[in-house]
Write a structure and sequence with these properties.
Oligomer: single chain
GO molecular function: serine-type endopeptidase activity
Radius of gyration: 28 Å
Family: Belongs to the peptidase S1C family.
CATH architecture of one domain: Alpha-Beta Barrel
Organism: Nicotiana sylvestris
Shape: globular
CATH class of one domain: Alpha Beta
Keywords: Hydrolase, Protease, Serine protease
Protein name: Protease Do-like 9
Structural class: alpha+beta
């Protein structure tokens, strides 16, 4: 028998053998909410085994009855667990600290409803819109609800090719069908046709919106192992949050939990075992730690009821205005407001929104659906709490009506009944899973501008690297008509016919043969039907492109063959 070696015991690697988890990139987000997709980072690795302490024994701190005597160790990451991803964009997840045995016992009945979601993604290539990127795989979490359905995050199944679900304690993966994807609220609805999947599974029950300091337990399948994980935190804030994936602002819960990759889509339970939210994103910043975000039940129920009512997800309506706070007393006086009147000043109105027919710039919005709006744009929420009035709008459904009261410039109070609708931005934040549109003539590749396109062209820092005029349209401009698009020359595929035009990149097309370009489909139609001798394109910065019509059309076929492009236009432009 070998003798025992003296000295310290070697530290053990908590993740041995090491998993191969590739680095992925992320879209640039404001510092307030970071949609982190960086490498996996151990927050606090498990301690190594130490020798007994000599001398006087330590004093044992007496803990309250409900406290947990052992502090858990967590991993930090805000994307679904990426299994194999070459160069894609990651997504968000949520995690926390370990819970005490009493809390686990209360949640156990619903834990069998939590499933692991496996997804194969194939993202569009926005820079080469006739192609798709290399597929990659990811894993995240989900849970069963009534009606033989499963909820998870929208970003967990974005650009999906195949989705599979695995139950707790099972070795079988079941192919799932995606019923609806709510990009704005970051929720997706799935189902499984195989009856075997539903055997022995009970649906999760939803609870009410929790109060501050209420305990929440997050269940899912984060990185660090293959079995289910139970972690916890408390509700530390309830307010309107920026939903990173959908680029919208909706009600959200902030909990003081650390973040693990792979928890995306997992349920958050209260102490009664009822689901009060879905884990979906985190805040990563050098000055903060243990901040995670949960989609609350009002948003979840809005998504489910929207699907059940319309047979599809129609979205969250928005009041198509930009407004200004009225906290300055001189500003209120100049607008003719009385001392007891409060509200916000309407700066601009979306021309395509239904309310543009009734409201005017410089109107003071006093109330929405009978609820008075304060000078800072908030409304009463619960006892001792206030929240942005956009919460009232988000409670409505697309097509619903709402009563608004405004103060016009001549101190006249007007009451209107407006119809609410979803907003379409001039530069869309997402394409809702659709492939990008494109049109090619004489080597000129035309496409439309969207946030995914800017990210593809300029990387995660597109808000700093993209042309200023495109960013101005992204941040400040409204559509003037429902079908308006920003059409750009994405690139020029070099050929003899386009000599001298090779350096034109991401420049907006303003007109074709003297006619304004409204959208990509109108440009393609005008070019295809053109019988003039020349094709003349008026671009931004006073640039002009002129090509002979017959030569340009005949050269297009050879250029497509040279670059292995299957078609001169995307399928949606053929309709």
């Amino acid at each position: 028998m070998a003798g025992r070696k003296r000295g310290r015991k070697p530290k053990s690697d908590p993740l041995s053998p090491a998993a191969d988890i590739p680095t992925s990139t992320s879209p640039h987000i404001d510092d307030d909410v970071v949609f982190s997709v960086s490498n996996v980072e151990l927050i606090d690795p498990p301690p190594s085994t130490s020798r007994p302490r000599r001398g006087r024994p330590r004093k044992i701190l007496k803990l309250p009855e409900n406290s947990n005597p052992e502090n858990g160790k967590t991993l930090k990451k805000a994307t679904p667990r990426v299994i194999n991803k070459p160069n894609g964009v990651g997504v968000a997840s949520l995690e926390g600290t370990t819970v005490n045995n009493a809390d686990v016992a209360r949640v156990v009945p619903a834990m069998d409803a939590v499933v692991k979601v496996f997804c194969v993604h194939t993202e569009p290539n926005y820079s080469l819109p006739w192609q798709r990127k290399r597929q990659y795989s990811s894993s995240s979490s989900g849970f069963v609800i009534k009606g033989r359905r499963v909820l998870t995050n929208a970003h967990s199944v974005e650009h999906y090719t195949q989705v599979k679900l695995k139950k707790r304690g099972s070795d079988t993966k079941y192919v799932a069908t995606v019923l609806a994807i709510g990009t704005e609220c970051d929720i997706a609805l799935l189902t499984v046709d195989d009856d075997e999947f539903w055997e022995g599974v009970s649906a999760v029950e939803f609870g009410d919106l929790p109060a501050l300091q209420d305990a929440v337990t997050v269940v899912g399948y984060p990185i660090g192992g293959d079995t289910i994980s139970v972690t916890s935190g408390v509700v530390s804030r309830i307010e309107i949050l920026s939903y990173v994936h959908g680029s919208t602002e909706l009600l959200g819960l902030q909990i003081d939990a650390a973040i693990n990759s792979g928890n995306s889509g997992g349920p958050a339970f209260n102490d009664k075992g009822n689901c009060v939210g879905i884990a979906f994103q985190s805040l990563k910043h050098e000055d903060v730690e243990n901040i995670g975000y949960v989609i609350p039940t009002p948003v979840i129920m809005h998504f489910i009821q929207d699907y059940e009512k319309n047979g599809a997800y129609t979205g969250f309506p928005i009041l198509g205005i930009e407004w200004q706070k009225m906290e300055n007393p001189d500003l209120r006086l100049s607008m003719g407001m009385k001392p007891d009147q409060k509200g916000v000043r309407i700066r601009r109105i979306d021309p395509t929104a239904p309310e543009s027919m009734l409201l005017m710039p410089s109107d003071v919005l006093l109330s929405f659906d009978g609820v008075d709006i304060a000078n800072d744009g908030t409304v009463p929420f619960r006892h001792g709490e206030r929240i942005g009035f956009s919460y009232l709008v988000s409670q409505k459904y697309s097509g619903d009506s709402a009563a608004v009261k405004v103060l016009r410039r001549n101190s006249e109070i007007l009451n209107f009944k407006i119809k609410l609708a979803t907003q379409m931005r001039l530069v869309p934040a997402h394409n809702k899973g659709r492939p990008p549109s494109y049109y090619i003539i004489a080597g000129f590749v035309f496409t439309t501008v969207s946030v995914p396109y800017l990210r593809s062209e300029y990387g995660k820092d597109y808000e700093y690297e993209a042309p200023v005029k495109l960013l101005d349209k992204l941040l400040h401009e409204f559509r003037q008509s429902p079908d308006e698009q920003i059409v750009v020359v994405s690139q020029v595929l070099v050929a003899d016919i386009n000599i001298g035009y090779e350096e034109i990149v991401n420049t907006q097309v303003l007109a074709f043969n003297g006619k304004p370009v409204k959208n990509l489909k109108s440009l393609a139609r005008m070019v295809e039907n053109c019988n003039d001798e020349f094709l003349k394109l008026d671009l931004e910065y006073q640039q002009v492109v002129v090509l002979q019509t017959e030569t340009a059309k005949s050269a297009t076929s050879d250029i497509l063959t040279t670059h292995c492009i299957p078609s001169a236009m995307s399928e949606d432009l053929r309709m």
